[in-house]
Amino acid sequence: MKKTKQLLTSTFIAASLAVASANSYADGVKIGFVTTLTTPAGVIGEDMQNAANLALEHLGGKMADQDVELIFEDDGFKPEIGKQKTDKLVKKDKVDFVSGYIWSHVLMASAKSVLDAGKFLISANAGPSQMAGKGCDSNFFSTSWQNDQTPMAMGEVLNTQGVKSLYVMVPNYAAGKNMAAGVERTFKGEIVGKDMTKWGKDKQLDFSAELAKAKASGADGLFVFYPGSAGGAFIKQYQQAGLKDSLPLYTVFTVDSISLPKLQAADMQGVMGSKSTMFWGPDLDNAANIKFVSDFKAKHGKYPSFYAAQSYDSIMLIDSALRATGGKVDDEDALRAAMEKADFDSVRGDFTYGNNHMPVQNFYLREVVADADGNWTTQISETVYEAHQDPYAADCQL
Amino acid sequence: MDWQLLITQMLNGLQLGLLLFLVASGLTLIFGIMDFINLSHGSFYMLGAFICSSITAKTGSLFIGIVLAVLVVFCIGALVERLIARKLYQNDHLDHVLVTFGLILVFDTLAHLIWGSQGRIISLPDSLNGQINLGSLVLPSYRLLIIGAGLTVAIGLYFLVTRSRLGMRIRAGASNRQMVSALGVDIDRLYLIVFALGAALAGLAGMLIAPITEASIGMGNEIIIIAFVVVIVGGIGSVKGAFYAALLIGFIDTLGRSYLGDLLALFLSSQNAETAAPALSAMLIYILMAAVLAFRPQGLFPPSNS
Amino acid sequence: MRGEQASSWPSHLLARLKGNLPNQVYFALVIALLIAPWLINALDQSFYLDLLTRALIIAIAVASLNLIIGFGGMVSLGHAAFLGIGAYCVGIPTYYEQFNGFVHLGLAVLCSALFALLTGLICLRTKAVYFIMITLAFAQMLYFTLVSLDEYGADDGLVIYQRSEFPGIFDIENPTTLYYAVLLFLLGCLYLTHRMMHARFGRVLQGCKHNEQRMQALGFLTYKYKLIAYVIAGTMAGVAGFFLGNFTNFISPEMMDWTHSAELIFMLVIGGTGILFGPVVGAVLFLLLEEWLSGFSVYWHLILGLMLIALVVFGKGGVHGLLSLGSNRGSQQNTTT
Questions:
Q1: ipTM of the complex
Q2: What are the boundaries of each domain within chain A?
Q3: Which of B94, B106, B221 is nearest residue C265 as measured by Cβ atoms?
Q4: pTM of the entire structure?
């Protein structure tokens, strides 16, 4: 009996030593990447996954001469699953960085797990106002934007286009509210109506009641935000309702390389020429972007989406930090200082970080056109904002 | 009051009601005749949409797509009845809930495997992509087609149930199960036909809505719960009840979404009213169901015992 | 029964374990759960402590469901609502910077009991499939109520930045403390269920499951018995929700979705309905399975779905049924031990 006990104890000690040593002497960098791989929104996650993998490929699979392990997790479009997966990445896989996050509410639910553990959190899409303002954190960075910025740029465009009254349609979740708030912040005309539609796992996709209301409101323009596959469904119904001439469409994050191929397949001509604002475009002329877009197209046969661009940059940002620290993953302060410099060739061109670790960057107006091969894509037509900082930065105490 | 808006919204409500009826009519018969709770009935709705999108893309014709897809979904329904449902009619409701919940997981994942996570578009011919002008009223022509198709199927089903021999057996089965078997009807065959027919009707509803919303994974999981509400409110086993209840719920949902926000804005801040309105109109449906269950559990239009 | 309890408990326990494979497994399970944190901390695998804590919290909810489904025969498809109520009783006070754990716990007990009482009064007028649907209806109503409350995050949910405080008693920010608090409460719930099922109350309840009319003919007010069981079950699940809110540091209306209620039933059936330890076995197995399957393919729901179908079509009685096959004696007379 005593012998067995001794044996058991020594086995445990040996096992725990083995685990402990594996941790302290482990070389290589571990990066967790949380995105949506199931549900209809999985199409966004695939794009992000492809881009992150492409970035790693461009780096030769190494950062500062260390092997990189990229671990993808599926949040299933649910905040609590996202939180669970983030916990797993931090506690089980013991990653050094966590990136990804399409959805603002998933990011909000998961942030605490990463930041409490003293790891770095890099949002490759979601930019909720809370994380930019009061809830900012020294270990949180974004390679995308703060939610309000893109619709703010759209508000400016509406003003110059002479739109006097606007109808707003957004999904009812954190980012939807930020988008509506953003356009209201800069739009000088009157908001004549606003609809917040059900979002999430069983989101509303039939917008007949809302479109009828929008039409009856007599607004000059319709502002919408429907990311992912909902964008395609919305555009189709907009065209079927025959609103193209009476109610011009202005979108953010709705008409992109995810919805355009489907819209082209269905020959939804109504979307041609529609305007959207964005910090980036596949036609943006800089060396990093040209390489990214052409390699992505060669590999996956379609244009990368903005989600892809942001994911690509998030990997490049981590690489720039590790290069600065010579590959050391445990020197938090040095890593942070390096990331704050944003010293890498971003696909959006040069940008800087604000005090809240949100990019200070340009925003462009884009129009839908057909490219040389006849594929529908977006083209930048003018610069709306130069080096724009989000309105919440002042609330951040960093 | 904006009458044009109201009429448009009434038509939208009618469209939603008819789609709900297509899903709920099969559900109520399966429920009434076999006493089987089929949570996976919504999966036929989803499969219909996906299969139709594939066939339409191959053949280039929406009409062929719908006809063939209805047949395919009918066969899938028959298969599910033969392989799984039939074994469970005698079991308690708990088993039904579990097995059909399992079936939902299986069908959703199979759809992901076969068609990918991205939704599938069904292209409409130009003639259906436009609008129809009725005086000053402009309506998307495809939505009118859905209403027309829904009404046609409803009338067809009415004649099938009230006039045909099969319908007589179905009615008898819905009101008194023992009697049908006592009459020497081939009960296995009746069950098979009812189950597969119900699946095909749900599939048809999915095909009709897909050109508007796209075929997407999990699209059946929301409608199935509302379809159950329709079944309960209308009375289990009653096709007529399902028809009236579906229209009622279609109107409540659509009109609630359009007018409740303005109504709430009288009491709440506009931000709160915007958030609360869609949720409250969804809640109205469940309040209706709870009220029916508490005060008139047999439903508003129970199947007659005659 | 009474006579047996007079003898010392170790011999009583031994008598229960002898020749009874299911009971031996359950005994081993409890021992394993008691020492698990020590082992996990020694191996520095805090992730697994999280997983077990979650499983035990869910097990409390499943145990409460067992009370009404397994013993009372009332199949509820809205049980996840109570988890949500308990979690919001942590989240909403925390939002107003009220961190006192007794306030949270008190609210969770009060709100879930009240919700169970009010809905139970109406739901229990119905039976069988109508009961399934009306419990679903009330859960959906609550779901949409919380979706409509913009102040508390609506669809996005609420982040709970700090766990409930029990100053001077214990600190549940410490994962091991939280684990033992959950385990203790779970065992308490199981003990309570055990005692109730061997008292008159439990016999009447189980009588209702098999033949309610007979119980009424015998003069029992079955409605009252069922209502009490429903309120006790709702309150237990509410406390599970209190733990869940504290554990995940996040709550959203999504937690009350009907698919979650269906999952709770699934776990109950895995462990075996009407079996005292079934919920613990079911919840632990389900969560481990989920973790393991989701790790190797995004298509893992397919396997889960097929297992669920197979479980009902071929494997009646769940794990308990399988274990009983390995035991000499059938499980019938031991279903409530």
A1: 0.88
A2: 22-145+285-360, 149-278
A3: B94
A4: 0.89
